[in-house]
Amino acid sequence: MSESKEKSTITKKGEINYANPIMIGQLKANKNFFENEKKRFLEMYKTSIDAGKINEQQVDQIIHNTIVEKNILEGVKQYLRQYFTANIDDGEKQFVIEQIKAQVKDMPEDKLEHAAKNIIFEKLLFNYLGNNEWGIKVTDGEVNDTLEQHYKATNQSIREFKENPARFEEIRAQVFTQKVIREIMKRFKVRAEVDLTTGTDQEQKN
């Protein structure tokens, strides 16, 4: 597989209106996503589960919160498209398509292309918001704290990430993304037609 050149670009067209509410009509997540995420979390947090620090019900809640977050972020991304123009590089798009194919089998070509464009747009958008709009920084200390927390929760070795600068920067990028997501959750108003704690329908609230 060829190396991604990351030639795609994004340009801001106008000032963002943060007061406009983001509408969530229903929570979208298929059964396979829930089951795969549950399996992944159970494996990741096996040490904490065995020690009685977390139970399966709490894992289900973590996954539900992840689904809520993904739906809110998708709503925000769709809203922000009016403020940005993205130029998606064909080579980078094909690189991402190959990555998706390695993880998801038998996805139709049109959906592959749509998913690849969405992934690239999200990365461009988050980088722009974090760096240009909000000045988000991630210190070495924050990266080390994240690694230590991961070790305590999973008992998985973090030596490779501490000793390999490239892997260390991968964690910095993950922390940066999480900071951008937290800022999004603070800045944008969400108006839901479902109860985000359960996923059940509810009357729209102001």
Structural class: mainly alpha
Portion in helices: 55-70%
β-strand number:
4
The count of helical stretches stands at 8
Q: Between the first and last Cα atoms, what is the distance in angstroms?
A: 49 Å
Oligomer: single chain
Please give the largest β-sheet: 2 strands, antiparallel
Q: Give the SSE string.
A: EEHHHEHHHHHE
The fraction of residues assigned to DSSP E strands is 5-15%
Contiguous low-pLDDT stretches (5 residues minimum) are 201-206
How large, in whole angstroms, is the Cα Rg?
A: 19 Å
Shape: globular
Order of the strands making up the biggest sheet? 1-3
What is the overall pLDDT average? Answer: 85
Give the arrangement of secondary structure elements.
Elements: E1 9-12, E2 22-24, H1 31-44, H2 46-50, H3 56-80, E3 84-87, H4 90-103, H5 109-133, H6 140-154, H7 159-163, H8 165-187, E4 190-192
Parallel strand pairs: 2-4
Antiparallel strand pairs: 1-3
Helix pairs in contact: 1-3, 4-5, 5-8, 6-8
